[in-house]
Amino acid sequence: MNIILLGPPGAGKGTQAKRLEQKFGLKQISTGDMLRAEVAAGTAIGREAKAIMEQGQFVPDPIIVEMIQNRIGQADCSQGFILDGFPRTESQAEALDSMLAKRELTIDAVILLDVSEEQLVERIASRTSEDGTRRKDDEPEVVRSRLKVYRDQTAPILPYYEREGRLRRIDGMQSVEAVGTALDDLLVPVSR
Ligand code: AMP
Known about the structure:
The chain is an alpha/beta fold.
């Protein structure tokens, strides 16, 4: 089973993706985590992405598309994957469809975690990682530009998935547990 999790930054995609990995034996593919690893390792991609990410803007589509193309073909994705943070632009959505078609893979569910913007700013402001450090792009002014970029570039891909009735919505303002249950209810029938 292959899934796309959509939603603005702070909607809970990462948290829920980790839960789904355990529950359904899938692999989380987070382009944000992959880029942060590139930055930490000081690779060419990391050097290009660092400043862009710190401003809350999007890393160029060709870099992202190539990263995903390499990732979905790896052995640990063979039981299925959860795309978290990709696609984020219409051109990424189209590139995804064509790379899946080439591999004869399909997406079984496209799920939007629906949340209100005001609560997102609060939620992200109080977010720290497990080691207690804070992402630079979680500073309030960067969060605001990330939300704007989401509104301008990512929200417009929703109709792409809404056509053919592919998009399912879950209320992301509920507790982590309630969102998890809603996801399970939606995915258990799909996983059979
Ligand atoms: P995330 O952890 O998903 O919020 O991603 C953190 C940052 O990485 C984003 O604000 C972008 O700068 C960059 N990024 C992650 N995924 C993508 C993507 N699919 N397209 C472009 N930029 C991305």
